[in-house]
Amino acid sequence: MRLIPRPALRRPFYGEFIVKPVKVGICGLGTVGGGTFNVLKRNAEEIARRAGRGIEVAQIAMRTPNPNCQITGTPTTTDVFDVASNPEIDIVIELIGGYTIARELVLKAIENGKHVVTANKALIAVHGNEIFAKAREKGVIVAFEAAVAGGIPVIKAIREGLSANRINWVAGIINGTGNFILTEMREKGRTFPDVLAEAQALGYAEADPTFDVEGIDAAHKLTILASIAFGIPLQFDKAYTEGITRLTTADVNYAEALGYRIKHLGVARSTPSGIELRVHPTLIPADRLIANVNGVMNAVMVNGDAAGSTLFYGAGAGMEPTASSVVADLVDVVRALTTDPENRVPHLAFQPDSLSAHPILPIDACESAYYLRIQAKDHPGVLAQVASILSERGINIESIMQKEVEEHDGLVPMILLTHRVVEKRMNDAIEALEALEDVAGPVVRIRVEHLN
Ligand SMILES: NC(=O)c1ccc[n+]([C@@H]2O[C@H](COP(=O)([O-])OP(=O)(O)OC[C@H]3O[C@@H](n4cnc5c(N)ncnc54)[C@H](O)[C@@H]3O)[C@@H](O)[C@H]2O)c1
Ligand SMILES: N[C@@H](CCO)C(=O)O
Ligand code: NA
């Protein structure tokens, strides 16, 4: 056999590109800013080969040094607006977080004709409509892949990869901190505050961690996902949000015994009467892939009429996973610098003049199955009373689990799983259940999704 010698691999290198590098400015050198700086530096050659041009950090706006970054030689400032008005800079990377200065900074950068890359889901969910309108007027791109599910390229997947589909629903574990807390509590029996402190030390949590544990951060991300999935304007104020702080170990264990896992899930579903947009603890059958997404990992399921269900999995937070998305956006922007703004991928996936006015449904018009835990007195006939309250309202029981009498208070926990029902009807049933003589205290209700 004659071996044909392979031609020596041509090794392109950064300096070889004739075109000058694109100059970018980083605003905020914290967890994500530091990761972005380091990835741009470490993978400069790969990135330049992909983008067709090098990407040079020409300025950094920072308040304090980041011990993880060697920034020698890169000009710095303490004022982010210096970056937005720096004539050398083509792309402003907003990584300071928050809604106030970040909004002014992004609008100023756009005003000055600069493209923007941001990881700020709060900013996009709350001020995105204004920001995208301004960007369109100025013919610039605002890229935000890092804003949803950290390192998972899910914005790109929905906006481009699934563009043939009519999307039915999107469901995701989209807060790394919350999922890390739930996992550590379930697997290692650790306490909530202990795990939260670790998530903060690892750089996963928001500046205000109530955003993570009360579901606000997940609602920001779900708002963005719903817009690009259904072609609707961003409407964060209409999202329903319930946190994980009131979950008890008892419910986690009962769910487990019934074959379910409790996850903090964001669900956006398109129905004929409107769009459901809700974040809450949710029972998911334990044999589903998404029920087994643990720690800081995130996963987003998208159900489209042509593709069926697709699942996107990866790190939902952290320095370099998030930087991966920021840098991918930079590469996209660099490739699109010379393109006609009218022919670029629209910010919200659909052409801005084709957004739909399909309304967001209030939570009591949303539909799901339910887990109910009722603390009942150990009297004969309680179960019959419970069953008749539910059946009078057309709520079908799927299964019932009754535990032993709890010695200290003589109460018997009765756990029920129901079929799908509109929330308003369930609220009415719960009110009637709580009024029963033999039912003590509030009924615990957790929504159930089978994600079929
Ligand atoms: N940490 C993550 O895993 C992660 C993942 C995805 C998205 N995000 C988003 O990325 C953004 C940044 O998050 P982070 O975790 O890097 O936060 P961080 O607190 O680690 O970093 C923010 C940095 O910005 C600096 N800063 C704030 N205001 C400034 C100003 N006016 N001028 C100059 N510097 C300023 C702070 O000093 C800090 O160093 C947020 O919008 C966050 O929601 C974070
Ligand atoms: N605080 C967020 C960061 C990633 O968006 C989380 O924990 O998911
Ligand atoms: Na992403």
From TrEMBL:
Domain named ACT: residues: 371-447
Keyword match Magnesium: no
Chain positions recorded as L-homoserine binding sites: E206
InterPro entries membership: ACT-like_dom_sf (IPR045865), ACT_dom (IPR002912), Asp/hSer_DH_NAD-bd (IPR005106), HDH (IPR016204), HDH_cat (IPR001342), HDH_CS (IPR019811), NAD(P)-bd_dom_sf (IPR036291)
Residues of the active site: K221 (proton donor)
EC number assigned by the record: 1.1.1.3
Pfam families attached to this UniProt entry: ACT, Homoserine_dh, NAD_binding_3
Record key words, sorted: Amino-acid biosynthesis, Methionine biosynthesis, NADP, Oxidoreductase, Threonine biosynthesis
GO biological process, one term: threonine biosynthetic process
Reaction catalyzed: L-homoserine + NAD(+) = L-aspartate 4-semialdehyde + NADH + H(+)
Residues that bind NADP(+): C27, G28, L29, G30, T31, V32, G33, G34
Pathway(s) it belongs to: Amino-acid biosynthesis; L-methionine biosynthesis via de novo pathway; L-homoserine from L-aspartate: step 3/3; Amino-acid biosynthesis; L-threonine biosynthesis; L-threonine from L-aspartate: step 3/5
Positions that bind NADPH: K121
One of the record's GO molecular function terms: NADP binding
Superkingdom, taxonomy of origin: Bacteria
PANTHER family per the UniProt record, alphabetical: HOMOSERINE DEHYDROGENASE (PTHR43331:SF1)
Family: Belongs to the homoserine dehydrogenase family.
Protein name: Homoserine dehydrogenase
Organism: Pseudomonas graminis
